[in-house]
Amino acid sequence: MGRIRPIAIATLLALLGASGLVAAAKVYRWTDSNGVTHYGDRPPAGATSAKPGAAAPKVQRVRIPPESQPISAMRVENEGSRHLVWADNKLAGPIEVRLRFERSRNITSEPALPARATVPASGSALVAVLTIAEAGGGGEFRLQMDSLPGTPSARPKDVEYQAPLRQRSVRIDQGYGGEFSHTDPQNLHAVDFAASVGTPVLAARDGVVMQVASDYDKSGLSRERYAGRANFIRIAHDDGTMALYAHLKSDGVLVRVGQRVRAGQQIGLSGNTGYTTGPHLHFVVQVNRGMRLESMPFRMRGPAGPLKITRPR
């Protein structure tokens, strides 16, 4: 029986666009009294030293850019005559993946590639099984997997969202179809609320924190340099839709991935990070329409009643 040789495995980051990226991890570095450098996802308890009476070690935060962290991982299990290709979801909400051959020789796939699969929150899904096409010969393959937040089976409900800012009045600086940055499908129905840096950001609807980024501290008008480099919170709703709260201040995320939140609960602090003209909160409701994110219009109630949001012409 021929042998399958995987040449390489490539996993792409999420196809998210300007306001969405993967969660930024927190990594800490410190050196103990013995001169040993440690790394961890949290600082040492009380920053205690390895030797009694010694000075507490200095703990440094190591910032890892969100774009370096994938929302999914491809895993290939070798079962002798066949290879099982799995997708592992790194988010606390569903994702969709698309698997395809970059290159293959004498390999057959079930189902045929390209193939798509929906992966549950923090779970795994078998995407394809690869085998030799013609017995007696060897085979080889190279795979690529794309991933996108959300499930294509979402069924949006007509709900009224709460204003996402804790302030007495609401001002919209850019509405639906705004020429500056609300022109692509995933931001067409976005709303930019005026908000000074540090304004409390509230959950507009009940949901589960799916994805966050909080390590960015810069902003500017260079789309190439700053698009996609905004701090954000993505919250998954029970109907499959997702709300994105973007341009938060550095370390302005006050919730953790996987946390369930209620409408009106404070989740972050507004800021001025990423591709912006000034401090504000970018809010958008998105849905996965089959490996593409689309924004959708929504109803929202402000402090003085229902908000009037300009629709694209």
From TrEMBL:
Q: Residue limits of the M23ase beta-sheet core domain? A: 189-288
Is Signal there in the keyword field? Answer: yes
Where the record annotates domain DUF4124, the positions are: 15-70
Q: What protein am I looking at?
A: Membrane proteins related to metalloendopeptidases
Q: GO molecular function, one example?
A: metalloendopeptidase activity
Composition skew (Low complexity), residue ranges: 43-58
The signal peptide, as residue positions, is 1-23
* SUPFAM superfamilies registered for this protein in UniProt: Duplicated hybrid motif
User: Which InterPro entries does the UniProt entry name for this protein?
Assistant: Cell_wall_metabolism_enzyme, DUF4124, Dup_hybrid_motif, M23ase_b-sheet_dom
Instruction: Outline the segment boundaries, as ranges, of region: Disordered.
Output: 35-59
A Pfam cross-reference name: Peptidase_M23
